[in-house]
Amino acid sequence: MNFNEVKEKILLCQDCKDKFGFTPVPIIHGNQYSKIMQISQAPSNNVHITKRPFNDPSGAKLKYKWYQISDEVFYNEDNFYITALSHCFPGKNTKGGDNPPPLASAKKWLKQELDLVQNKLYIIIGAKAAKFLYPDRDFVELVFSSNSINDKPAIVLPHPSPLNIKWFKDHPNFEEKRLPEVRELISNVLK
Length: 191
What we know:
HI_0220.2, 5 strands, Uracil-DNA_glycosylase-like, Uracil-DNA Glycosylase, subunit E, 44% helix, 5-stranded mixed beta sheet, alpha/beta, Uracil-DNA_glycosylase-like_sf
């Protein structure tokens, strides 16, 4: 299958309909030639409702504070291809948090996306996404090191969720040292 066929099939996918108890809304954004491929865990409920990736508090932190870019830059399909392990919001758990992303979507679609998108840089967001792509590596080590996928540079970031505050307190070097490096990589790729 070519890129457009894969993208269309992802957007029409309803494989998890019975599992979720609601109609899944697959979310991907970008084109085959997006410069940066961003892979996260799963869309939030807000993204599920609005169909716009990263338009929630986590997305605001990611775009404006971490990347220091505008919505115009982030949502430009030539700049970012935005995908996730689970292309759909996985629903809420009994405690009110989001369910973990089911890996069926990643196993079915992500390898094809990785093979077809002609990006220059990968950004992996969250421990679950990192574990899927780097099963034998320590998450903290991944965040603070140079990585690659398909012989292209890959950045691993913690999830920007407000619920992740302990991780940031335990790793102050992330904001002080790693984020400036991340911004520089992103800026260079988007030139």
